[in-house]
Specification:
5-stranded antiparallel beta sheet; 5 strands
Length: 99
């Protein structure tokens, strides 16, 4: 019996913030909660990296998606366990440093 090495290739997306250089992220997972779409992204395709949860703020009919970083504590507390359940091999840790 042949074993196939099925390595999951992460989708790469490019964000183009106004007045800033484009930033690349890899999409780890996506979900819908409370009528909104969310994606969990990281800056590295493999290994440990910084992760962000982004909320799709696009209006219906828009060609390009508009995402904002989720920073509300209650929203993050609701989303983190959902993404941890979807991705069995990760644990999300909160960076509670104040800027």
């Amino acid at each position: 019996m042949n074993e196939m090495n099925e390595e999951k290739k992460l989708e790469k997306i490019i964000f183009k913030p106004e007045g800033a250089d484009p930033v690349e992220f890899f999409v780890l997972e996506q979900t819908r909660l409370g009528g909104h779409d969310y994606i969990l992204v990281t800056d590295f395709e493999e290994g440990d990296g910084e992760a962000l949860i982004l909320k799709d703020m696009s209006e219906e009919g828009e060609e390009e998606s508009r995402y904002v970083i989720v920073s509300d504590d209650d929203e993050l507390d609701a989303l983190a366990p959902v993404f941890e359940d979807l991705l069995d091999d990760i644990a999300l840790e909160r960076d509670d440093e104040e800027e």
